[in-house]
TrEMBL record:
NCBIfam families in the cross-refs: thio_ybgC (TIGR02799), YbgC/FadM family acyl-CoA thioesterase (TIGR00051)
Gene for this chain: ybgC
Species for this entry: Fodinicurvata halophila
Keywords of the record: Hydrolase
InterPro entries xrefs: 4-hydroxybenzoyl-CoA_TE, HotDog_dom_sf, Tol-Pal_acyl-CoA_thioesterase, YbgC/YbaW
PANTHER family linked to this entry: 4-HYDROXYBENZOYL-COA THIOESTERASE FAMILY MEMBER, ACYL-COA THIOESTER HYDROLASE YBGC
Protein name as catalogued: Tol-pal system-associated acyl-CoA thioesterase
Similarity comment: family membership: Belongs to the 4-hydroxybenzoyl-CoA thioesterase family.
């Protein structure tokens, strides 16, 4: 492989472009309806992968956070704008950024693109929870320190 294809194949978990994390996602048959168009709910799954890989790239894996820090994240709110459809075999980029970093909440902006064309945009509010009580919990200082350089707030 040469060019962009080989560059991407080595970084399937994604990469950062400035403060934005880019996670490639291929559209498979299971993601589509009978017409070969991505079923609307699957964009939420693609976005979840993007947020997970964003954290993993910062060495804040979900299981690690739970096991070592008693912390987990849960989606509280999502606003989605579906602009254009993705189709079977498309290679998409899920672009994730932190719009606002609060005490126990993160506002994350996400876009799903095919090349330079935006297909879906969303704002996702994520809350930090204590993994035992499932009550909201402030982010610890070291996690805030890791996330702050990627925050636009």
């Amino acid at each position: 492989m040469t060019g962009l294809a080989s560059e991407r194949s080595g970084r399937l978990a994604g990469w950062f472009e400035g403060g934005v994390h880019v996670c490639p996602v291929r559209v498979y048959y299971e993601d589509t309806d009978a017409g070969g168009i991505v079923y609307y709910a699957n964009y939420l799954r693609f976005a979840e992968r993007g947020r997970t890989e964003f954290l993993r790239a910062l060495e804040l894996g979900q299981q690690q956070l739970r096991d070592e820090n008693g912390l987990m994240f849960a989606v509280r709110r999502v606003e989605v704008d579906y602009e254009l459809p993705a189709r079977l075999d498309d290679l998409l980029d899920v672009r994730t950024r932190i719009v606002h970093l609060g005490g126990a909440r993160l506002e994350m902006g996400q876009e799903i693109l095919r090349g330079e064309t935006r297909l879906v945009s969303m704002m996702v509010q994520v809350v930090s929870l204590d993994s035992e009580t499932t009550r909201a919990r402030r982010l610890s200082g070291f996690i805030r320190d890791i996330l702050m350089p990627y925050s636009q707030s």
